Amino acid sequence: MKRLNRKGFFLAAGIMAMGLGLAGCGQKESETARKELVVEAEFPSEGKLTLQNEFMGSITPQEEVYVVPLVNAEVTASHVSVGDVVQEGDILCELDDSAAELQVKSAGAALSSAKASRDLATGGQTAASNIQAEANIQTIKDNQESLQSKYDALMEGKADLQDKMEELKNSKKSAKEDYENAKQQVAIAQEYAANSMAADSQQVLMEAMAEQEKTKAIYEATAAAYDQNYPALESQMDSLEQSQKELELSASALGHSLKFAQDSYALSKGQIADESAAVYQSQINSAAVGVESAKYQQDMYRLKAPISGVVEAVNVAENSFASSGSPAYVISNKDSMTVTFRVSEDIRNTLKTGEKIQVDRNGTVFEASITEIGQMVDAQSGLFIIKGNVKASGNQLLTGTSVKITADTYQAEEGLLIPYDAVYYEDGQAYVYVAQEGKAVKTLIEIALFDDTAASVSSGLTKEDRVITTWSPLLSNGAEIVIKESDKETEGKQTTEAGDHE
Q1: Which residue range is the domain that position 193 belongs to?
Q2: Co-location of 82 and 226 in the same domain
Q3: Angle in degrees, CA 284, 290, 293, rounded to 5
Q4: 361 & 487 share domain
Q5: What is the CATH number of the domain that holds 465?
Q6: How remote is the C-alpha of 254 from its chain's centroid?
Q7: Same domain for 26 and 81?
Q8: pLDDT value at position 18?
Q9: DSSP-derived 3-state class of residue 205
Q10: How many domains would you assign to the chain?
Q11: From the DSSP assignment, how many helices (H) and strands (E) are in the chain?
Q12: Nearest to 320, CA basis, from 495, 73, 10
């Protein structure tokens, strides 16, 4: 039976009415019309058939960085606002570096002391030089004590932060276990309700289902809190570990400075014999390292753009307090954006990385390619997350905007293609009419894939079979037909006849 949505119910009804109206025109005339059933037919073509699906997605920058201060200090000057375009290395803001400046001066004093020690070793010892050396040693020891206090405070902060991270992990794990236990209880209660005649069986089931919903809500809220807060805690931990390395570097430099100062003092007291000038030069070089280390720490008080891009967020202001571990700026590079969308498992299995897709934003189409195919179901949507890279410039695609994605999904391999309107169905079996020796022959086929215009035939036809593409209520198995030449065939025939005439 032909599907009515192909040609339409009214067309069939109209043809039936015409048949009834012409019933009195004579048997001979009806037989002539039946014999002269004119149809169009064509040979199958060879090719692939690909289906496309559309999805909704969202846009995010592919390269996005959080600029996090490594020190706690007051903001003395802010140089950028949201929407500003910055280049890599641009200064975003300046922090109060008074303490760092003192460290630079202290390191400079240590360098001067090392040079003075060399001069004393070659020019004689005086009481004044001994006093200066003692003062220098005490200054270095004071700096070591101050540095140790900062280090102890930092390690306490790391321990507290680690506790928070573990608490988040444990909360999520515990909530998930409660949720899984609740689901098991529901299954047990369902079996109990199905097999028991006890009056309270349904009440037990209802209570179990309520507990499941309660634990599910707690788990989802806990998981959301984990996803929201854990990355920030990790960022803070990275900052603290960086600060720890810098403090350890400073402590090492101070230790070298103290040793050199003590050696120089001992030399001035006559406890160390004269050594070569290389020893003193080594002391000077070590003190110079301390100066460079102090200057490096001072540079932390100027926040710079790590990449070129657009300032998406500013979380500090002049005269406010910048905290280490908390993002002060968010910068994104919008020359390359990421599109994220979600698909079912069946469609996920048809996609592959590197595959081209189209991204449509209000009628403007951007070329893109798939870069990531999710390996697990998204808990909120129940679908798989797919990501792709979109090439755009400037503000053509804004962060967070919704777009339409078109992607090739199901595909039939190389095979025979026929017009889909030529296909009929009867009891779920597809068939076509093939023109053979002036008659229509009903031919069963298997369809691998189809869309609105074409069908890919996997079996039942050969490329020499001429498929009837005309619909008619008189078309049936064994009906006599006359094939109407297509416009292309007629044009070719006229060209050949004109050549023969010449």
Answers
A1: 97-300
A2: no
A3: 145
A4: no
A5: 2.40.420.20
A6: 46
A7: no
A8: 41
A9: helix
A10: 4
A11: 9, 21
A12: 73
Tell me how far apart the alpha carbons of residues 215 and 496 are, in angstroms, rounded to a whole number: 81
Angle formed by the axes of helices 127-195 and 201-268, nearest 10°: 170
CATH of the domain at 265: 1.10.287
| Whether residue 434 has pLDDT greater than 90 | yes
Domain boundary among 327, 343, 376: 327
- Which pLDDT does position 491 carry in this prediction? 45
Q: Could you tell me which residue, 485 or 444, shows the higher pLDDT?
A: 444
Q: What are phi and psi of 296, to 5 degrees?
A: -65, -45
Contacts of 87 (CB under 8 A, 6+ apart): 305, 308
C-alpha to C-alpha distance for 276 and 159, rounded to whole angstroms = 47
Q: Identify which has the larger pLDDT, 262 or 170.
A: 170
Task: Assess whether 73 and 212 both reside in one domain.
Answer: no
Domain with residue 89: its CATH number is 2.40.50.100
* Residue 411 pLDDT > 80: no
Distance CA 68, CA 369 (A): 32
Q: Could you tell me the CA-to-CA distances from 133 to 108, 139, 263 in Å, in that order?
A: 15, 10, 10
Between CA 297 and CA 304, with CA 298 as vertex, the angle to 5 degrees is 95
**How far apart (Å, rounded) are the C-alpha atoms in residues 177 and 58?**
32
pLDDT tens-digit series, residues 27-60: 444 444 445 799 999 999 988 887 878 899 998 8
Q: What is the pTM of this model?
A: 0.39
Rounded to the nearest 10 degrees, the angle between the axes of helix 201-268 and helix 98-123 is 30
Instruction: Based on the fold, state whether residues 429 and 487 are members of the same structural domain.
Output: yes
pLDDT in tens, 339-366: 999 999 988 998 988 899 999 998 889 8
* 147 and 251 together in one domain: yes
* C-beta atoms surrounding 321 within 10 Å: 14
Residues 73 and 58 grouped into a single domain:
no
Mean pLDDT of 462-489: 85
Residue 405 contacts by C-beta under 8 Å, 6 or more apart in sequence?
54, 55, 56, 57, 339, 341, 357, 358, 359, 360, 368, 388
Quick one: 40 and 61 in the same domain?
A: no
pLDDT tens per residue across span 136-182: 889 998 998 998 999 999 899 889 989 989 998 899 899 999 989 98
296 conformational bin, left if phi > 0, alpha if psi -120 to 50, beta if neither: alpha
8-state DSSP, 102:
H
- Give the domain CATH number at 57: 2.40.30.170
Averaged pLDDT for residues 417-441: 92
Last residue of a domain, one of 257, 285, 300: 300
